[in-house]
Amino acid sequence: MKIRRIYKSTIFLKSIFVVSIFAIFFISAITYKHISLLSNSSKWVNHSYDVNLELERLMSYIKDAETGQRGFLITKDSTYLIPYLQSKEKIDRSFAMVKKYTKNNPNQEDNLRKLEFFISKRQNYLSAILHLSLNKPLNDKTIKTKLKIGKETMDSIRHQMDVMILFEKKTLKERELAYKDTIKVTPIFVYVTLLVTLLLISISYIRINKDLEKSKISNNRLAVLNESNNLAEIVSNFGSWQYNFNSEEFSFSDNSYRLLGFEPNAFFASQENFTKYVHSEDVAGFREFMLKLKENQKQAPFTYRVIRKDKKIRYFRTTGRIVTNKSGEEILIGTNSDVTDEVLASLSLEQQNIELEASNKELLAFNYVASHDLQEPLRKIQTFVSRLSDKETENLSESGKEFISRINSSVERMRILIDDLLQYSRTTKTEKIFEDTNLNDLLENAKLDLAQIIEEKSAVIQNQSLPTLKVIPFQIQQLFVNLIGNSLKYSKESIAPKIKITCKKVIAADEDLIPKKTKEKFYKITFTDNGIGFEQEYAEKIFVLFNRLHNRNEYAGTGIGLAICKKIVENHKGFIFAKGKLNSGATFTIYLPEDFS
Questions:
Q1: What pLDDT digit, counting tens, does each position of 306-328 carry?
Q2: Of these four, 140, 317, 333, 552, which has the most CB atoms within 10 Å of its CB?
Q3: pLDDT in tens, 226-240
Q4: pLDDT tier, 6 (very low <50, low <70, confident <90, very high otherwise)
Q5: Which of 61, 56, 57, 54 lies closest to 100 in space, CA to CA?
Q6: Residues 6+ apart with CB under 8 A from 515
């Protein structure tokens, strides 16, 4: 598998190319070496020939001198001395040539020094014998002795020349053997190198063909992807662009031109040409945004206005980031999206939110003021009815007394409704100040608030330890009061209410009831009772303001208590859920975040 990956890599192809170039240079070097060897061989053959020829010429000049001397000694004719006299200069010239040929060859130079000694000695004896022959006969003992020494010297000259000639022949033969050895081995290297080179070139050819096929397939896919991208840009109403830092050139996609109302490539792609269509009030911000993008600073998408070719104003959103391609070039890529509909919808929504917030404030103010203003006439009604009951009871008929009782009951219900409305208004309007609070203390306070009804109904409340959390203390206490009060209110007749309160820490991902995109950890607090319960289909409706499941003649109440609970839990970024079964009790589950921020 590893070999296959190497084969498919571009490094492999580059390596083959380098090896092939190296092989070509190697073959060239071998060829050059052979040519050099051949040239040197020819050169050394000529050199040996020249040395041998010059030695023979030198020997000929020495023999001429000896022949001239011999002729003069026999005939006493001076004309025989001409070759002798001319040979001196020829011998010197020929010797100089031999010396030149044997330069830088220590063996031959040593042989040449010996030869020079013998030649000089022979010439001296030739000259001495000539001088002696002028005064003495040839059979003179002195002349005979010198003639004998001259002959021996001549033999030494011949021997030394033979030594030099043999040395040249031996050296030439050694060079020929070395040349033949080189010639014999080199073709093997050449052939092997050629075969390897051909193999590598063949592999390269196959690989290049495969790469070309892959390139063709990739180009086809790229063409399809480009068309798909163009179609996606048209459908999604955006355009793309690129900026090459090396060439300092921009390129726009076809849809980038269409978004401005132009045909593709209608104008030269550049930042300045695009900026011409940016709204004058947004030009400075757009240029600063593009500058920071080019400096590789992190930037949130920039929204701005453009003026299209048809003079219509549209909202664009531009984003981008720097990437590095395989060639090592840094390129800034980005998109321009037409977000006009989104921006206009957002502006409309903001306006609606402002209007809704104002309406809510007015409604809360009206609710709060109305509730307070209703308290005064209600108190007066209660006062007058109380006086009427105290002072005029004897004068009233039975019907009148019943009317007075009904008025008192209605006033009491009105008072409870006003109190609940004020409580609901308070949970919505009051400034939300969160404090680190022990929930156990708030639960005990809630029990104290309900102590009378708990005692009357002989209720049993079991609770686990609660945590310390950052909460709005009075709201959480009101939450506990409402939930316990709700269980007490809807308890079964002749059965003592049992309320169980549990608490544990949970992870949002493990709880099916909690939306997934929320805080990670919560405290899950449950209130379970053995009361009359309710049908599960009403589990959400019971938290709606003024919604009641029972007639007011059956159970007292205003339908606001659980709505207040829901509002309090929402103020703490938590969740509340109800689960019930008719005649089997109800369970209220509260999720409060561990870390409120």
A1: 999 899 999 998 888 888 877 77
A2: 317
A3: 777 777 777 778 888
A4: very low
A5: 54
A6: 575
The one-character DSSP state at 244 is: E
For the entire predicted model, the pTM comes to 0.40
Helix/strand/coil for 304: strand
At 319 the three-state DSSP class reads: strand
Q: How many residues does the chain have?
A: 597
Amino acid at 131: H
User: Residue 49 pLDDT > 80, yes or no?
Assistant: no
Residue with more model confidence, 38 or 580: 580
Decide: helix, strand or coil at residue 15: helix
Q: How do beta strands 498-507 and 460-463 pair?
A: parallel
| DSSP character string of 483-552 | HHHHHHHTPPTTS--EEEEEEEEEEGGG-SSS-SSS-SEEEEEEEEE-S----GGGTTGGGSTT--SS-T
Residue type, 258: R
Question: By three-state DSSP, how is residue 78 classified?
Answer: helix
pLDDT confidence of residue 179: 66
From edge to edge, which strands make up the β-sheet containing 460-463? Answer: 460-463, 498-507, 521-529, 585-593, 575-581
Phi and psi torsions of 173, nearest 5°: -65, -40
Place of tokens 């030198």: 58
Confidence at 526, pLDDT banded by 50, 70, 90: very high
What sign has the CA pseudo-torsion 54, 55, 59, 65?
A: positive
Label residue 142 exposed, middle or buried (CB < 10 Å: 0-12, 13-18, 19+).
Answer: exposed
Q: Please give the structure tokens belonging to residue 182.
A: 């080189």
Contacts by 340-344 with C-beta closer than 8 Å and gap 24+?
A: 340/314, 340/315, 342/315, 343/303, 343/315, 344/315
CB 304 within 8 A of CB 323: no
Asked if pLDDT for residue 552 goes beyond 60, the answer is: no
Give residue 251's identity as a one-letter amino acid code: S
197 near 30, Cβ under 8 Å? Answer: no
Instruction: For residues 25-43, give the mean pLDDT.
Output: 66
Side-chain-side CA neighbours of residue 249 (13 Å): 5
